[in-house]
Amino acid sequence: MKDLLFLIIALALVGIFVQLRFSIAVSIFLIAVITSFFKDLNIIRIFQLMLQTLSHLDTINMILVIIIVTYLGELLKTSGLLSDITEDFKKILSPKAFLPIFSLVVGLLPMPGGALVSAPMVDEGAMDVEINSDEKALLNFWFRHVWEPISPLYPEFLLGVSILGTTIFKIISIQWPISVGMFFSGIIFIVPFIKNGKKQKNRTDLYTAFDILKNLSPIILIFAFLMIFKKYPSFVSMLFGLVYLIILRKVPFKTLKLSFKYKKILEYTFLIYAIFFLREIVTSTNFAQSIFIELQSLKTPTYLILFILPFSIGFLAGISSASIGIAYPLLMPLLKVGNSLIPSNILIAYFGVWTALLFTPMHLCLSLSVDYFKTEFKRVYRLMLKPFLFLLTITLSWALFLKFKP
To answer: Is the Cβ–Cβ distance between 118 and 369 less than 8 Å?
Structure first.
């Protein structure tokens, strides 16, 4: 029972730290240290894990990605490209269409730190409409995450397919209501935040289309490189996009220097490190396995185990790959019988992963969106409640259908 009790305390501490206005990076780091002491790790072992975290290729890659993407976001603004993109879209669409599209497009590919690419676009595009910072943060975060439950471009999706030993299309047939629910709940509850937005009366011509393509080309190039060079660390693709932007806009050295925000980059770097350090603690101490055993010993209903275990790992780690990679093997007897999947159980388990990602401050996209738009988690959570309940209704309805279908 002690691990389950500690999990409850850890989740409460996250809320307390955020309420005390600790930075999210400091909050996560403190949770990691507290967890390591709870699991009886000595100081030497904690320092070993801290160094081990820093030596992992995925940690290094993510830190480099965040540095490059943060710089790229600043250059998009200072070079004037962001304004040009916004003006192009204003000619053909209303803000109620193009603001969500910015996040939807960036979310098509698993671009680490992608929230920092779409956020400046959303911010710039919202200049002439009535929408506050809380609403912009939610719009940027929500629409960016429509694709992940059904997209084989996401490594987390493929990880689930691999662990379950099934096909891509089978998992899509189970998880599609989450993507559909995300999209329509965003349309119903989030898009109406955008007020007084009108499309400019301009006729779309070939010049406008070419201009849009040219201005979006740095982002398109990043997408293309991510697709072509899948075996290389993602920071390489980001770097190509950054260099291309500098050449395309002929950015002078003075602008390059002013656009490098040292303080913001250091804050985001520490945030990445804290998240990966917590993940290292959770995995190295078999914390999730202990939770699973304790839930079983309490004779917890199957559907609660299916939800709680992925949720708890996802909430603490803030990364869906960690939640799927740790929880699914432990839950395998509940997800699969022989060679036959249990679709309703898989959906509940994945929705545990998804709910954690929507609400945990450890989720990089959420924390970056909250930070970028200078808002607070509790205000974004308040706005998220209605779209989430809509999503919950759709997901549970599909789970019941899967369970009782003939």
So the answer is: no
